[in-house]
Each structure stands twice: as structure tokens, then as C-alpha cells.
């Protein structure tokens, strides 16, 4: 049975962006991460080693967002997707990442800017 593990609106203060002031001042980014895996073994064994530990997943995502600054949300989202697909000792079959930048430097009133990427792990 396929299980879905989802982390929504993981807030990380980081220094990404094209403009110098974004790199210098930083801002909040929010990450939505969803991974799919075969969860039968974990469900029946009640053993954490048979699933993707969401606490460790969140920690890894935060470390990446706080890491080396990038210009584009697309680049950051792809880095997070690559991590999520390879997370959990090969248990993750599919992943979807959305990176939100609600304080993007746009001179108009808006609620959010985001980039979403998704992929299946190659077998």
C-alpha cells in the first residue's frame, strides 16, 4: 500500500534571491514536501526504520534551504526534490516539493509566489 507523508509550510529563514538586498537581509521561505512510499512494512511492524522519518526529512530540508544561496526558486526546489527522492534509504518512490516566497520583491499586492517540482525515483 502506498503511503503519503507530507510536511506543510516548513518555515526557514534564508538568503536566496537575485537581488543583493535579498542575499544580505534574508527572508522567510516555506517548503511543502510530500513523499510517497510503500508503507506496508512500517504499518505492520511499527518500526521507524521501515519508513521515511519525517523529523529527519524536515531537518534535511531546512539544512538545504539554509545552505548555499541561489538566485532562483527553481534551483532551490530542485535541490530539495533531489534530497527528498533519495531520502529514507531508497524507500521514497515519488516526491513533490513546493517552495513559497511570500515576500518576493514584486511591486504589487500578492499573497504568494511559489515553484513546484515533482518526480519519481528512477528504479
Structure description:
With 123 residues, the chain is of the alpha+beta class. The protein has a single domain, classed as GTP Cyclohydrolase I, domain 2, CATH 3.30.1130. Helices cover 31% and strands 33% of the residues. The protein has four helices and four strands, in the order βαβαααββ. A four-stranded antiparallel β-sheet has the order 1-2-3-4.
Name the features.
single chain; 123 residues; alpha+beta; GTP Cyclohydrolase I, domain 2; 4-stranded antiparallel sheet; 4 helices; 4 strands; 33% strand
Strand order of the largest sheet: 1-2-3-4
Distance N terminus to C terminus? 18 Å
| CATH topology group | GTP Cyclohydrolase I, domain 2
CATH homologous superfamily descriptor? GTP cyclohydrolase I, C-terminal domain/NADPH-dependent 7-cyano-7-deazaguanine reductase, N-terminal domain
Elements, N to C (H/E): EHEHHHEE
Number of helices: 4
Mean pLDDT: 93
CATH architecture: 2-Layer Sandwich
Task: Profile the largest sheet.
Answer: 4 strands, antiparallel
Report the structural category: alpha+beta
Number of E strands: 4
Number of domains: 1
Described by the principal axes of the CA atoms, the overall outline is: elongated
What portion of the residues fall into strands of 2 or more residues? 25-35%
The residue fraction in helices comes out at: 25-40%
User: Spans with pLDDT under 50 lasting ≥5 residues?
Assistant: none
The CATH class is identified as Alpha Beta
Radius of gyration, in angstroms, nearest whole number: 16 Å
Amino acid at each position: 500500500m502506498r503511503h503519503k507523508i507530507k510536511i506543510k509550510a516548513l518555515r526557514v529563514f534564508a538568503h536566496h534571491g537575485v537581488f543583493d538586498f535579498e542575499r544580505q537581509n534574508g527572508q522567510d521561505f516555506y517548503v511543502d514536501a510530500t513523499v510517497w512510499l510503500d508503507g506496508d512494512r512500517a504499518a505492520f511492524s511499527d518500526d521507524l526504520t521501515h519508513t521515511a522519518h519525517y523529523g529527519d526529512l524536515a531537518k534535511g530540508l531546512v539544512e538545504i534551504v539554509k545552505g548555499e544561496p541561489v538566485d532562483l526558486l527553481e534551483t532551490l526546489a530542485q535541490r530539495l526534490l533531489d534530497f527528498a527522492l533519495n531520502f529514507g534509504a531508497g524507500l521514497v518512490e515519488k516526491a513533490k516539493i513546493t517552495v513559497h516566497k511570500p515576500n518576493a520583491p514584486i511591486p504589487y499586492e500578492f499573497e504568494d509566489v511559489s515553484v513546484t517540482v515533482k518526480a519519481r525515483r528512477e528504479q
